[in-house]
Structures are given as C-alpha cells and as structure tokens.
Amino acid sequence: MVLIKPFQALHPNSSNAKEIACFPYDVAYESEVREFLRANPNSFLRVTRPEADFNTTATADTETVLEAARANLEELIANAKLVRDTESSVYVYRLESEAHSQTGVVACCSLADYERGAIKKHEKIRPDKVAERTAHMVALRAQTGLILLAFKATQMTKDLIGQTVQGPSIFDFTCGAGIHH
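The structure assignment produced for this chain is given below.
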C-alpha cells in the first residue's frame, strides 16, 4: 500500500484558472513556450519554464533562471493570481476530451514508496533532468511539475471520488487544446 497525504494547495482562483493553467513543462520546445507566454503572460509556464522570458541570444545561468522562477511565482501570489487553501486536502482532478475522460486524485506521495518500488517509474528519466527539477523544487520550495501516477481503484476510492465530483468544482474551464478541466 502506498502512503498519500493531503496538502495545502497553491492554485489559481476559480475565475482565472484558464489563464494560469498550462501544459507540463517538458512537453514543448522553448520557442513554443515563448509563443504561448506572448499570448498569455500570466501562464504558470513563467514559473515552470522561466528561461523563456530571457533573451534568445544569451543563455542564462542556472541561478538566474531559478531566481526568475521564484520571482514569477511570488508575483502570481502577490497579485492574487494564485491562492493558498486554508486547509490541507486531497483533490480530485478530471480531464475530459471528446474521446476520453481521466479522473484522479492530487495528493502528496511518499518518496520512500517511490524509492522502494511501490510506485513504479513510468519512464526512464535522465539524471540531469532529475537534478534540474530537484533544484527547481528546492529553489521555489514547491513542487511545480506534477507527476501522474496510475493506481488500481478500490471501491472506497471509487465512492470517495464519486461523492466529491457531485459537489461544486474549484475550477471549470476548457483550455485551448479543447481539454475540459
């Protein structure tokens, strides 16, 4: 059995979720990220991919990039674009397209469970990428690149998710790719 825990989320408020939401940091080229940020300067990509804010002809050092990520996160918080929940929770998140629906829980997972193999690795991750994302998390004191884990639902988890989705949503929007969140 894998240990999961609730946490105090820092998330967009319900009125601006579509503006803040972004695709995962590792699915787009820098040029695509720059284009997306030009169209949407409040995107969370400014936190997960801050190098896209820099001049294209010069490469910024790691500390400068991490400082930009920190500053961008602090700016989103200061401008109330992101809010922190008052209580720790486990969240239910659903993504829907015309052809598919995927529902899961958002929670903290045990690193010890991952290291002992109770949470299976879904891909081979290069050590340099692990170090880069670890430095990002440490600098921001936040996990900004969520990891999707598949799990075998029990009747209890099915019932809890079913009860939760009957209530009001924190967010309800459709992104540019046509995915309903």
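Interim note for the steering committee: The first helix runs from residue 17 to 20. The chain has a mean pLDDT of 89.
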